[in-house]
Amino acid sequence: MKLNHLNLTVSDVTATIDFLVKYFGLQNGNTRGNTFAVFFDDGGLVLTLMKGKQVSYPNTFHIGFIQESEDRVNEINQRMKDDGFDVEPPQRSHAWTFYVRAPGGFTVEVLC
What we know:
Radius of gyration: 14 Å
Order of helices and strands: EHEEEEHEEE
Shape: globular
CATH superfamily: 2,3-Dihydroxybiphenyl 1,2-Dioxygenase, domain 1
Number of helices: 2
CATH topology: 2,3-Dihydroxybiphenyl 1,2-Dioxygenase, domain 1
Largest sheet: 4 strands, mixed
């Protein structure tokens, strides 16, 4: 069995689209303004975004993007810092990792 679909409710679909495409290379499949979007990754995952009036995820909820190297994690971290995101430097935990609050109201882990 393979998980192949995930839907996230977000406060701003357009800003979330820009974030996911810019930093993680997701391919945008279809959008309906600032209300709905479908994305695909190169592994077959389908990620949908739906605009919600109230977005509230538990503190521990997050999605993760595994990278091929520590250098790639560092590069994404620096790009996000340069673009004004409030990110701490990567650290050694269960992996070389950092977390960032994505536009739309959810947390993303970047790791290798």
